Amino acid sequence: MTMQEKAAGRVASVMQEDRVFPPPAEFSSRARIGSMAAYQKLYDEAKNDLEGFWHARAQTLPWSTPYAKVLDWNPPHAKWFVGGRINASAACLDHQIATGKGGKTALVWVGEPTGERREFTFEQLHAEVCRVAAGLQKLGIQPGQVVSIYMPMTPELVIAMLACARIGAVHSVIFGGFSSEAIADRNQDAKAVAVITADGGWRRGAQLPLKKNVDDALKSAAHEPTSVKNVIVLKRTGQAVDMVAGRDVWWHDLVAGQPADTPPVAMDSEAPLFILYTSGSTGKPKGIKHTTGGYILWAKTTAEWVFDLRDDDLFWCTADCGWITGHSYVTYGPLAAGASILIYEGAPNAPHEGRFWEIIEQEKPTIFYTAPTAIRSFMKWGMQHIEGHDLSSLRLLGTVGEGINPEAWIWYHEVIGGKRCPIVDTWWQTETGGIMMSPLPGCTPTKPGSCTLPLPGVCPEIVDAAGHPVEKGEGGWLVMTKPWPGMLRGIWGDDARFVETYWSRVPGKYLAGDNARQDKDGYYWIMGRIDDVLNVAGHRLSTIEIESALVSHPSVAEAAAVGRPHDVKGEAVAVFVTLRDGEPTDALKDVLRKHVRHQIGALAAPDDIHFTASLPKTRSGKIMRRLLRDIAAGKETVGDTTTLEDYSVLAKLRGDQE
Ligand code: WT7
User: Fold this and answer.
1) In the chain, which residues have pLDDT < 50?
2) Count H helices, E strands: the chain?
3) Helix locations, 202-269, DSSP H
4) Residue 551: phi, psi to the nearest 5?
5) 428 CB within 6 A, ligand 1
6) Does residue 278 line the site of ligand 1, with CB under 6 A?
7) Which residue puts its alpha carbon closest to atom 7 of ligand 1?
8) Ligand 1 pocket, 450 CB below 6 A?
9) Does ligand 1 come within 6 angstroms of the Cβ of 175?
10) Contact, 305 vs 33, CB < 8 A?
11) Number of neighbouring beta carbons within 10 Å of residue 76
12) Closest residue to atom 13 of ligand 1, CA basis
């Protein structure tokens, strides 16, 4: 067993398999789905009549034109709610106002410089969204055109997403930690016509140069000519920025005098709602395409089931809207369910490591949804930052992004949840649009480290390389055998890659890219990726992308990137580099780190750089990643090397470990 498997919780999970936490009785008695019998009934209903099941659920959405058919399944292409028309921003805002929730709090925002706070009712959020929507229309942005959004985690980020949705424009949110080159790649791939950004953002007291990054992206020589006609700039930090006449417009000027009742454009159920770029095992990031009707139903229904949303809940999902979690469980899911959301702009350890607990004490969220990497940081920072804060408002905790190691689960349960809050460990992906497997907090007994069971309408299977289901207890590839409303509809502009990546290795089934195992109770345990995708602090990174970034530096001849276990981030990035010229010095390591930061973003910057005379390859020329992983992890005995092309390479590599 490798250290990586250990880090993924495999060893611990085997030990924890029999440790079961039943849902608290008080919770079950009030929950939407309050017993395993009720869950099983729903699950069977969906399994036996998928279309009837989703037809019944879709009645809760405000369709402007009813659909003619629930599902048109032409594998691997699905159309949900065929012929129906709906607007996602109307489902989140107008629908709540129409059903009497206009005066209810929709969004509470806490800013990074301590003391900043804003609150919006559904009516107020609606008005803001309408003004921005009208402003975008005035710029000439048409339904179906792509708008990139590169913003700090402010209310305006949520407003920008909903404003795009309102006019039928397709948003492509780019996480604020990505570099100008990454913005340029995404603008070009999506043919974005506009970018919505801010002068800057706050991060641990420093100002991020967001507008400057956008300017650099638009000047990028490799991406000429740019499709971007306009840049909309929110004044956030007040830092100096260059405004290009005729192209750039301030947000406050764009919305000035615009109406607060811009009508939503009724979009086809299958019209793209957004693109979100994510890393795959090959090439550039791929634009995952989500459409309107099925996605909004999936985000809303899963939010209601998994977080058991009630009218008096305040839901704090700590994800940035730059990731899918921020799309589905900050913006679309909770708002379409009429829930109040809490968002926070800053880092958990600024100005101090108790910031999250201070916010919980002040704002009193009832549901808290975060990532295992954050939980491991909290554990490391220590109890002194938590003690003394009143966390009693919390009733439910969630985790997402990677497997949670049982130690962290137990700590989360005891320290943050005061032993009274159920934990939902939610497995899903950018591609799935929303949660696929998770406990239901009112009924599913939980086991630390397991995402437990599929939601109704989700049909997972674990198969071997030949596509045959494996025995219970055995590991294999996780696939989905049936379509679901929130599934990705494609990769933007590359249908061949969509078919190839997700539907070809196991024909006719959706290949998630994860290894998994089912225990004797049928519970699912995720055991890490099957490909060369890394999960660093819950962020998906492609080894190839990091390697390409390194090789684009003139000093680098060849590069190999692998993950190694890291106690907070889960995985850290380790790279092995052979040089074309230059000396293998610490100074060059710094240069290469900066280079990757510039090419992709800080989140991809290598933690360890090993210079080596050559890379270990098999006779067929493939880099031996397993071997490099062992070396990166500092393992004493490295794996089987009989297929090594050149045994001396190994000695050289080992010699390089200082
Ligand atoms: C990959 C998807 C889903 C939003 C955040 C990440 C891993 C995600 C879990 C979990 C074990 C998990 C998987 C998956 N993953 N949640 N609860 N247990 N692994 O979205 O960037 O698309 O990454 O994250 O490996 O395939 P993403």
Assistant:
1) 1-14, 642-647, 655-658
2) 23, 30
3) 210-219, 251-255
4) -65, -20
5) yes
6) yes
7) 402
8) no
9) no
10) yes
11) 20
12) 402
